[in-house]
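Let's sit down with a protein and look at its sequence and fold side by side. Once you have written the record down, we can walk along the chain together.
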Amino acid sequence: MVATPGTGAVYSINAGLFRGTKAGIVAAFGCTLGVIPHMIAAIASLASILNTSAIAFETIKWLGVAYLLFLAWQTLRDKSAIKVDEEVEPQSFLRVIRTAILINLLNPKLTIFFFAFLPQFVPIDEVNGTLYMVGLSLVFMGMTFIVFALYGVFAAAMRNQVVSRPKVMTWLRRTFAGTYILLAVRLVVESR
């Protein structure tokens, strides 16, 4: 699940490609932090509310769709030039982390994943089921960070080949915006 490119992976790649290695790693860290509320909700069994309440699920889903469309619009309207030899970031790392957290926070499927998938690996006779779930969640978060950071670092390594070509940059921005739109459409058609 972690290696499958979703909104967090796309954002980590985007940050690495457009802002460099550090930004790609920071975006991966922010996406990992965005998992924490879902983990807490699942462990506290709040995920059952999302699973049973159509209104709660739909509200989070549509907030996620709106945010992905906002990211697509923001990516398309960004015309700033990128200089590869410059490590100065146009966005602060705090803003990159905030965006990454929001991307994962507004994904109701993550909570349902934590609620439906992880408990299957907790033995029925486990006395400390909550601690076991926390451990499994931390493993998931570690894997998320490593995989997303690798995406961001690889994208940053490709910067020299991509950034020096304005036409490639234009198409790349369009591709990222289109990906955000496709992910939003995918989220629209998702059901509980």
User: Anything to note?
Assistant: The two ends are 18 Å apart (CA to CA).
